Amino acid sequence: MEVNSGHDSSFWYDAWCPLSRFYDILGSRGSIDLGIASHSSVAHALATHRRRRHRLEILNRIEDELDSLRKRAFQTGKDLSL
Predict the structure, then answer these.
(1) How many Cβ atoms are within 10 Å of 48's Cβ, its own excluded?
(2) pLDDT in tens, 6-64
């Protein structure tokens, strides 16, 4: 997915960052570990999630991806499926 507004992209089930789909990496436990609901969009996760430090490196890399997306200027258009 190419994220523009983030409202049309699933945080867990769409491949919107280079790490792959987060559900494939972390499974159903990932939403508990990150504190982001399994039905969240990318926009919702960005608006509500506060960064945490984790013991697992992959969780810290996902936090880094969220931070880099926050720093990027958002567009208002629909997200694009690539």
Answers:
(1) 11
(2) 899 999 999 999 999 999 999 999 999 999 999 999 999 999 999 999 999 999 999 99
- Number of residues assigned to the chain: 82
55-69 as b/e, with b when 16 or more CB fall inside 10 Å?
Answer: eeeebeebbeebeeb
Report the candidate in 66, 61, 29 with the shortest Cα–Cα distance to residue 49.
66
Task: Decide if 38 contacts 28 (C-beta within 8 A).
Answer: yes
Enter the pTM of the model: 0.87
**How is the chain split into domains, by residue range?**
1-82
